[in-house]
């Protein structure tokens, strides 16, 4: 390969691996500075963790590019770091003595546990479940393809809760436009990367869905405005 093309290929791979984590850096720093995690929905972490873990098991059934595998691993650690910070901040500011644990198996407090350890336990339990089912069905093409669609579909839905929240409130107050901008840039880049590198169809189809959701949120910014509330950056 031509040296310039090799450099471009290496750079795009590097951006694919670490670029997905970049939009969450401003949110992490904001929580650190403010000591308040209320502006960030940890369910974003839930969706990203589920999608990334499913993608790992999809790779065992269909060996796609290693760059995308490493991207999933980086995102898992990024989400866990965010959850760890949110738990630490919430514990320091929690006034109630009420505590909730993963092992309580109480649906009412799902993903609203008191300790970071509980989120780790959930991730391990989900991983073990995926491992068991994948071991049994690894030779089923239908299962493998479904696994891939679930992984990227869940990731594609990251913006949906924000989209519906804006629609319900008829306002985008409290939403970081910079966060959505970084999502959009990243989604366009990775979808282009998927298409040019012949990634499985699941990746670029759901990448296109993500771009459409990002655009819809931007349209809400112009239609509803952001009001005068503080925007989380």
From TrEMBL:
Subcellular location, principal: membrane
InterPro entries annotated for this entry? PQ-loop_rpt, SLC66/Scramblase_ANY1
Any one of the GO CC terms: membrane
* SMART domains per UniProt: CTNS (SM00679)
Domain of life, per lineage: Eukaryota
Please name the GO terms of the biological process aspect recorded for this protein, alphabetically: phospholipid translocation; retrograde transport, endosome to Golgi
What UniProt keywords are attached to this protein's entry? Membrane, Repeat, Transmembrane, Transmembrane helix
Q: How does it sit in the membrane?
A: Multi-pass membrane protein
Localization, per the record, is: Membrane
Where does the sequence pass through the membrane?
6-24, 44-62, 68-89, 116-138, 144-164, 201-224
Q: Which PANTHER family match?
A: PQ-LOOP REPEAT-CONTAINING PROTEIN 1 ISOFORM X1, PQ-LOOP REPEAT-CONTAINING PROTEIN 1-LIKE PROTEIN
Protein name as annotated: Solute carrier family 66 member 2
Q: What's the source species for this entry? A: Scyliorhinus torazame
At the highest ranks, the source species' classification is:
Eukaryota, Metazoa, Chordata, Craniata, Vertebrata
């Amino acid at each position: 390969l031509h040296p310039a093309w090799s450099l471009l290929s290496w750079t795009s791979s590097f951006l694919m691996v670490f670029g997905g984590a970049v939009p969450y850096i401003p949110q992490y720093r904001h929580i650190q500075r403010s000591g308040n995690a209320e502006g960030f929905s940890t369910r974003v972490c839930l969706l990203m963790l589920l999608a990334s873990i499913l993608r790992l098991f999809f790779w065992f059934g269909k060996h796609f590019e290693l760059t995308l595998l490493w991207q999933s691993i980086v995102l898992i650690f990024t989400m866990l770091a965010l959850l760890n910070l949110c738990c630490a901040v919430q514990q320091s500011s929690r006034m109630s003595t009420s505590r909730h644990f993963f092992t309580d198996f109480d649906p009412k407090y799902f993903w609203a546990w008191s300790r970071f350890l509980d989120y780790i336990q959930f991730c391990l339990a989900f991983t073990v479940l995926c491992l068991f089912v994948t071991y049994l069905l690894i030779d089923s093409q239908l299962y493998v393809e479904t696994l891939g669609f679930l992984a990227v579909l869940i990731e594609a839905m990251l913006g949906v809760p924000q989209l519906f929240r804006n629609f319900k409130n008829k306002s985008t107050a409290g939403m970081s436009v910079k966060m959505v901008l970084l999502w959009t840039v990243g989604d366009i880049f990775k979808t282009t990367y998927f298409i040019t590198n012949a990634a499985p169809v699941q990746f670029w189809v759901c990448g296109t869905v993500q771009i459409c959701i990002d655009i819809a949120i931007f349209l809400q910014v112009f239609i509803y405005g952001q009001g005068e509330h503080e925007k989380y950056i």
